From TrEMBL:
The keyword Nucleotide-binding does not apply. It comes from Corchorus olitorius. Keywords: Cytoplasm, Redox-active center. Transmembrane segments: none annotated. It holds the Pfam family Glutaredoxin. Belongs to the glutaredoxin family. CC-type subfamily. This is Glutaredoxin. PANTHER family: GLUTAREDOXIN. It is found in: Cytoplasm. Its main location: cytoplasm. PROSITE patterns: GLUTAREDOXIN_2 (PS51354). Gene3D superfamilies: Glutaredoxin (3.40.30.10).
Length: 108
């Protein structure tokens, strides 16, 4: 018996230092993946449109975020950071790098 969608999201989010739930055709998803790639962060990406249970997981992510836009959703160190606006705000205000270092996703 498989996990319910919320349990699956939480399990997948805790398995790597940086986890991104994405849709392959989403430009904001692409931008957040490029941001982390440019920082030298090894990220685990789950493309929901390529997963048979992706729609259910996307609904679970919308419940977590409390809004209608489910992707991209970023977890760092197993903790929900949020979508693109939260990631960019953290990057701009200088809190993203310490989060990545604490999670072991960034060494320098």
């Amino acid at each position: 018996m498989g996990l319910d969608p919320m349990e699956r999201v939480v399990k997948l989010a805790s398995e790597s230092a940086v986890v991104i739930f994405s849709v392959s055709s989403c430009c904001m998803c692409h931008a957040v993946k490029r941001l982390f790639c440019g920082m030298g962060v090894n990220q685990t990406v789950y493309e929901l449109d390529q997963d048979p249970r992706g729609n259910d997981m996307e609904r679970a992510l919308m419940r977590l975020l409390g809004n209608s836009q489910a992707v991209p959703v970023v977890f760092i160190g197993g903790k929900l950071i949020g979508s693109m606006d939260r990631v960019m705000a953290s990057h701009i205000n200088g809190t993203l790098v310490p989060l990545l270092k604490e999670a072991g996703a960034l060494w320098l």
